User: Fold these one by one.
Assistant:
Number 1:
Amino acid sequence: MRYDVLTIFPGFFNGILQHGLLKRASARGRVDIRIHDLRDYTDDRHRTVDDRPFGGGPGMVLKPEPIFRAVEALRQDAGEQDFPVILLSPQGRLFNQELAEQLTRHPRIALICGRYEGVDERVAEHLATDELSIGDYVLSGGELAAAVLMEVTTRLLPGVLGNEDSLARESFADSTAGPLRFAALDWPHYTRPADFRGLRVPEVLLSGDHQRIREWRERQALLKASKRRPELLVRTEASAIPLAAASLSGGH
Ligand code: 9WO
């Protein structure tokens, strides 16, 4: 999968591309992440990417020309092949695991990162094919959101995780429907010491009874999710499990 990221801060991505999952996926050739500096698509001496807003008001707006030129260059380079052009913004549709799965069906996507007070609306209206938000909060720009989107989608690509244990662990969530197919249904984790300042690890985990441990974990995951994120359990068989029979704290 190929990502083309359009930004006025290309250096922002140095860190995340040199560490962890995205680095590994790149090294294995599973993803090809290309960062493009929007200033390279300007044609004036000062490489101007922003300008004052029509109608007045504070701050600056990203000009349409460099963004259009950058996407047009990508399209030319892609030939016949169509690909999503995604603008990251708080006004976008809310990004989630389900959308991430849909995005992985595309062999390439372009990501536009806004900055300043905003991006010229003609980019959203006439250039981007999608506008996505990673959450209901304001950032200083779209870069962090683009990084999140790339991490979430890259994890889903075959041959990226390579960690069979975490794949097996997630298969419990996979057995339930739609947006539940992710870590909201994770269970509580413990490691040594078994007694940390009097806080004891649940006995069942020390029992060696793997059947009981599996049942305890699934129940705990459901209890936690139903308490904190009940909306995630709606429409699944999981909600039919009698929760009153167990408690969130300790016992199984
Ligand atoms: C800045 C601002 C200042 C005064 C009054 C209103 C204002 N709105 C904004 C604003 O939304 N700035 C954006 C910063 C411009 C586009 C890029 N920025 C951005 C993207 N912030 N947050 C995101 C984002 C992207 C995806 N998911 C969540 C947040």
Number 2:
Amino acid sequence: MDYRARQKRLWQLLEEKRLDSLLVTHLPNVRYLCGFSGSAGVLLASPSGSTLFTDGRYTQQARAEVERARVVITRKAALAAVGERLRRDSSRASVRVGIETEHLTVGARALLGAAARGRTRFLAASGMVEQLRRTKDSEELKLMRAAARLGSQIFERVIRKVRPGIREVEIAAELEFAARRAGAEGMSFATIVAAGPRSALPHARASVQRVPRRGFMVFDFGVILDGYCSDMTRTVHVGRPDPRSRALYAAVLEAQEAGVQAVRPQAAAGDVDRAAREVLERHKLARYFTHSTGHGVGLEIHEGPRLAKGQSEKLRDGMVVTVEPGVYVSGRGGVRIEDMVLVTAGGPQILTTASKELLTL
Ligand code: ZN
Ligand code: ZN
């Protein structure tokens, strides 16, 4: 990964905000800037030299992973060590340090302030690294393509094991086992498997419910490869679908494809949502579409931009977003279809390879 290029982009943002450094406390941001994937550590990122503060559990890991930052192994709380460093740095001139206010607890902020004292000024600087992370570089895209492909492959394999009477958790276990065996670090989030009436719950985690003889079944899951998340949803039908269920599925598929087609550079994020929603309005199903159309994805499962009503943020070349409209009809069931889509000047590129034909099991 090109950590040098990433940090250089950050220095530009720091300059715009007249900050001397950014204290990075959100772990995915730490990983993005210097490669450290441990579960405890903070990065003091500065054009004059970045430093990762972590503890003795990560001595070896930090040495192996971290690039473009010095590593300091500390016995005290990492933030106390950072504070002391800043106290020294600010002994000559005042220092302006950005803090990730959305990723710093009140207690940690107090600890930091007490250790720094002196002439360090802490300024709210949320979302700076997240801003950089929105567009993916070629190495990231390689991993994300591979993660999306892996998710699709295990889905197509595991789907053959679905039959009435099997419990949702068993299918979730099969997906997760297959993902691990294929080299995934884990799942992007708690796997959603929802059969029959439960498919009408947009965020139903796999439960001990058994798959009924007839009805929709929604799978929403993702795998993590080298830190990068995939995210996909497919809906299948157990038993023969009646005409109304077929129509429901066709409408969601049409909405999803309209949303995908709206994914292009310079489109507003809200335009993608509108494109999908308009199709469902035409089919008189919009009132059953109760969430937003999609989100960015990468080191985290939910990143910017948000593809929701009224979002004016412009899509850019290199962003990876999901397009996932759904309808949820209580009593009948739900349908959701989700792909990961790469924004390119040449048009939307769908990274999820699994078929979207209505599969009848
Ligand atoms: Zn999903
Ligand atoms: Zn999603």
